[in-house]
Amino acid sequence: MLEQILNSEAFFLTMALLASTLRMATPLGLAAMGAVYSERAGVVNLGLEGLMLVGAFFGVLGSYLTGNAWLGVLLAVISGGVLAFLLALVTLRYKANHVVAGVALNLLSLGLTSVLLVAIWGNRGKSADVEGIYPVNIPFLSDIPVLGEIFFRQSPFFYLLIILMVISWFLFYRTKWGLRLRAIGENPAAVDSLGIPVNTYKYIAVIAGGMLAALGGAYLSLGELSLFGRNMVSGRGYIALAANILGNWNPVGVVLSSLLFGFANAVEMNLQLYGWPTQFVQMIPYVVTIFVLGGLVRKVEAPKALGEHFDRGDTHV
Amino acid sequence: MEALRMKGIIKDFGSTRALDQADLVVKKGEIHSLLGENGAGKTTLMKILYGMYEPNQGEIFINGNKVVINSPKEAMNLGINMVFQHFMLIPNLSVTENIILGQEETKLGVLSYKEARKKVMQLSEQLGLKVRPDMRVADIPVGEKQRVEILKALYRGADLLILDEPTAVLTPQEVKELFKVLKALKENGKTIIIITHKLKETMAVADNVTVLRNGKTQGIIAASEATPEILAQMMVGRSVILEAVKEDVNKGRVLLETKDLTLGKKLKKINLQVQQGQILGIAGVEGNGQTELLETLLGLETATSGSIYLNNTDVTQKAVKERLKIGLGFIAEDRNDRGLVNGFSIWQNSVLGYQDRYQKNGILNMQKIYVASRQIVSNYQVKVENIFSKTSSLSGGNAQKLLVGRVFYHDPEVLIIAHPTRGVDVGAIEYLHNEILQLRKKGKAILLVSADLDEVRQLSDRIAVLYEGKIVMEGNTSDFTEEALGIYMAGGDLVNREVVLS
């Protein structure tokens, strides 16, 4: 009986669907985790899309230059940090509107990566193939029937996501740094009045967030395709932002909500394989996003000072 | 012994001089009241002490030693702490987390939450500052929030505690509690400065009073030697009649009436009547439905059920504009939010909402508007360069006079007045109170909503107490003692003396 189930086609399909859900959720989860950092510090991060794109590009470039995919990941993370620093600079120091700055960041990234693509590989569409990062079977665990196949034969990025989720949760809810950061997103003036350097925390959080988003981007290029394609993030940054909201700005929450969006993506992929009309099926993740944001997110609570500028001595309203 | 001496402090903001050679001397272990009108420079002086502003000139001595304080952190290291009027709490964090924020103790990088909680509880019991350490700050009442703020300061080892208008948001019972706490702190050797513009409270709790006017120190006086009249004179610079004289006025027809007025869950079956020549005061702690009542009466919100009558006309479904036409005058709760457009000139604000009366075929009669505006400015003593100045250049008191002037000038029969003297100095309060009483004498029906209990009691003929969207008690003003009012406002009743404070 059990044997029958395990060998049936429906079971096989379900397994495939679940495994691809995790695959799809990985970049979303990493980027959404990045959004948690920056938005908990009160900086709206609409630049996720651009940060992911830059991460995807420099990941491939690093791998191309060094022949080592992990050095590519390192370069991706650094590039994300640098770009996020730019976002922090214009929003925190020059008080640019967060939304406008984020959109500008996305445009900048798209332009930058497109130009460099042509400059380096002489191709408008995609880069050369590079050394990628491939799924790793975890010894013993991957041999567990069903579960092993879904969870323990994944890309290292997935394992990284889970590790980062645990670390981030601990950081936010069990350390001094996290307590302060959460407070800053709610009421920076209050935190300032306690003598805590608010802007330093904000810079660190935004930069860390950029690094995480870039890591998500690197997964798309190095973890899935081993090459960079123009505008290959194609809206995942915005979905990640939605996942961050649905996940209630919580490291564990965003991983769960990324799984939901990842599932929508996986369904899309599978339906395409079965010959459903592509144009229709491709809408699924975005439609899910709209419905989730429109319907489900009423209960979540955004950091109160999200998107606001903070000036010293601004305590008296 | 001297805990603090501030000497010759000067602070300029742009071209305005907020503090002009201000001095302050506070003895160790006393409660010192820093008294002055709005804009006198009290808060600025204290923010300088707390390291938030840098003075242009002047010296500060703590316990006899000269210090320079560049940031709140340095102030805290000197044992100075400040509790702001707008609480500096993080609603989403727990009471304990709020208290330890910035002074967290960690073990191997992990917050020692349990130890911190214990320490907070100890401190809380020791000083009689009751708080619930695990509640989210968003879910606790105002009085408790204030206790959290005070604990937060003490947790940081404060010796000198500055409280900015600490009673502004409290019910009379909570004020009493607070004063008890302050006295207990004094017994424990703490030095306390309270910033206030309330004479009564200064007299009740302070040992010494320093009065500030226009950024200058007017003098220091022992509270035992002061009277409200002396202090008011020092604050304003002339003698002030503190209590408006209320003449007897004949009451006429009912002009404003609500029947079972309900708005969702915010207002529950409100029945009110206001007669000609009568002032009905609505007392209540803020957030118990005042805003909703005001907005429903004006027509910004539509009642879910029940009805509103203006001069015997059912206006429940009528738009704001129609209600104004029938003779409703409205002085909004927040003059910056609903009352005045700050970017507009004085003349524009003078006729805002009444443009219909100044137009013909859609074209404004500017001459008529200017005449009206000049009359408002002169009749209602708005101190202003000319009617073409920006409204944002007016001080709080003058802006309020402009708003009141606009409404009174257009001769409404029924007036809804919210917080007429909020953020207004003693001199202007005297004036505004007299204007309101003048209207009462002229036979207007007036509904007054105010968070200032003294104001409600002084002006009103009748008082209705609003609690959680219900009128829990209504009666003639003389029927209520201040204490009784306070108990009703806190949702208690006189029979059981049961007050739900926390």
What radius of gyration of chain A results from the CA coordinates?
A: 20 Å
Q: Which overall shape of chain A is indicated by the principal axes computed on the Cα atoms?
A: globular
How far apart, in Å, are the first and last alpha carbons of chain A?
70 Å
Tally of strands of chain B? 24
CATH topology of chain A: ABC transporter involved in vitamin B12 uptake, BtuC
Q: Shape of chain B from CA axes?
A: globular
Structural notes for this entry:
The complex is a heterodimer of chains A (317) and B (502). Chain A has 317 residues and is an all-alpha fold. Chain A has one domain (19-296): ABC transporter involved in vitamin B12 uptake, BtuC (Orthogonal Bundle). In chain A, 71% of the residues lie in helices and 0% in strands. By secondary structure, chain B is of the alpha/beta class. In chain B, 33% of the residues lie in helices and 27% in strands. Chain B contains 17 helices and 24 strands. At the A-B interface, helix 8 and helix 9 of A face helix 2 and strand 8 of B.
Please render the helix and strand layout as text.
The complex is a heterodimer of chains A (317) and B (502).
Chain A (H helix, E strand, L loop, with lengths): L1 H6 L1 H32 L7 H19 L2 H25 L4 H24 L25 H5 L4 H19 L1 H11 L1 H6 L4 H28 L10 H11 L4 H23 L4 H4 L2 H12 L22
Helix pairs in contact in A: 2-7, 2-10, 2-11, 2-12, 3-4, 3-5, 3-10, 3-11, 4-5, 4-10, 7-8, 8-10, 11-12, 11-14, 12-14
Chain B lengths: L1 E12 L2 E12 L3 E6 L5 H8 L7 E6 L2 E3 L4 H6 L2 E4 L11 H6 L5 E2 L2 E2 L1 H15 L14 H14 L4 E5 L7 H16 L3 E6 L2 H7 L2 E6 L2 E7 L5 H9 L17 E10 L3 E9 L2 E6 L6 H9 L6 E6 L2 E2 L5 H7 L1 E4 L3 H5 L6 H6 L7 E2 L2 E2 L1 H14 L16 H14 L4 E5 L7 H16 L3 E5 L3 H7 L2 E6 L2 E7 L5 H8 L13
Parallel strand pairs in B: 3-10, 3-11, 6-9, 9-10, 15-22, 15-23, 18-21, 21-22
Antiparallel strand pairs in B: 1-2, 1-4, 4-5, 7-8, 11-12, 13-14, 13-16, 16-17, 19-20, 23-24
Helix pairs in contact in B: 13-14, 14-15
